[in-house]
Sequence to fold (136 residues):
Amino acid sequence: MSNIERTLSIIKPDAVERSLDGQIKQIFLSNGFTIVQERKIQIEKSEAEKFYKVHETKPFYNDLCTYLSSGPIVVMVLEKENAILANRELMGSTNPKDAKENTIRKKFGLSIDKNSVHGSDSPENAKIEIDFFFKA
Ligand code: ADP
Ligand code: MG
Fold:
């Protein structure tokens, strides 16, 4: 059975700052993703706090929200068969040091916090995150 899904991808400030957004988009396209929607924006810290609310009790929450709002980001809706898992696999582990060869975080990530990309982790969160950035 086919299972076409949509997931939210973010190219984070460290990657946009290094002008890697074109290359990263190309990696998604060459791995069979369709970029259904795309916006380049900079968000307020209060919006980052809302986006990362699941992490609000973590020690890195404040720095994470400061960081995500520190510069332009590219937010995209990606579509593909099993897109959520496929994107997580293509991104690689949260810590670039642990990420497999040929993953985006292995190639471009600088550190566990500046790891170049975000991807939704479940169908429920994909819907919430897509609505967060793209709801009319
Ligand atoms: P992922 O982005 O792989 O889904 P998490 O949802 O666990 O990872 O964390 C969200 C983001 O918070 C990570 O991408 C990373 O930027 C940051 N982060 C996670 N763990 C740490 C940590 N131990 N120290 C600093 N930043 C972290
Ligand atoms: Mg996550």
In short: The chain has one domain: 4-134. Residues 4-134 form a domain with the Alpha-Beta Plaits fold (CATH 3.30.70.141).
